[in-house]
Write a structure and sequence with these properties.
Length: about 140
Amino acid sequence: MSTAIETLLPHRAPMRWLDALVECTDTTATGTVLVTAEHFGVVDGTMLESALVECAAQTVAAALGQRRRASGDSSPAQTGMLAAVSNFQITARPAVGDTLTIEVSEVKRLGPMLRIAARLTCEGQFIATGELTLYA
């Protein structure tokens, strides 16, 4: 995908934590982020657990922005809100220099509420899974 991430997300540095949306369908999306020492969510060389959750939420936001653009809507990125985190299990944290891949898939939508499943990998190794509920 070639759409600049800044056009899909309302987030700006230092709180934009997603580098690219690499795949997007009607119900799934994949994003990536290169973990750098300057990243706001990195402490002592590794990414915080809370940052992993936020990266998943931003992948959802980018996918919603991409879908909006694909439908012909070129308005600025819309804001949403992370409402709940459920069953999030983290087995490892990415280190500086690692590439984090975030896969999200829609589980259920009820009006503006969206429940998604997230699966995060780092350098090909599974590191986290869980569900997010978002107001989008």
